[in-house]
Amino acid sequence: APWATAVAQLDYRNLDDERPVTTEDAYPIEQDALEAMFPLAWESDRGTGRLHLAPELMWGALRNAMVGLKLPLATRDGQEHRLAVGGPRAFALLNLNTESPTLPALALRGDVSMPVGNAAGSRALASLKGIATRSWGTWRAHLNGTRTFGRAADAPTVDAPARWVASLAVDHTFWRQSLLVIGEVAAQESLGGGPTGWLAGIGARWQVTPALVLDAGVYRRLSPVGPDLGLTLGASRTLGLGGLGRWGQR
Fold it and tell me: Could you give all domains of the chain from N- to C-terminal order, each with its CATH number?
């Protein structure tokens, strides 16, 4: 339908968790919509590189909520470069309100990392995230704060969650090019404790077709803690549209 196609062409404004940067926006996908994502990331830390892949499927379960499942994968260190399978991560995001002149859009997200896989943790770990999004024309600002509950000894060795993460991002939309660019600063502490790590990143999302979005990002540490350099590439494919894309103002 023409309306569904027009809405799908705004999908590049959707900021997903860790794609193309850490920060995400406060809106779920539209009710009954189904999206498949294929993000690829490479990190270099003190001369050691690791490749990460985390295929993900999201479903718009309600008008203001979505659920999804992510499977973290990575190359395992060593001569064999075997594939490490982290614990599957189930998540849900609930949008609390549409942005208004007095309030930003607010959302809550919960994640559970399950103890399944050769690089999974020994127990399930739960995380809770608060999200705020505020728009000014073609500019938007986003604030995220995440807290993980559990012990470092129980965490997976692939895509292990931090004890806490706080990030601030600003993005700009180029309407004619169907392009969004974003920059962020993030701080986090490992689940086992220790000094705070600071990261800076930039990224972009580009709508190639009404149902396909490509994204890319780069980040690096600003403190002694964290990866020397990280690169991300990804593709999002819309498998079904109910009619409104992201719920509410985007």
Answer: 2-240 (2.40.160.40)
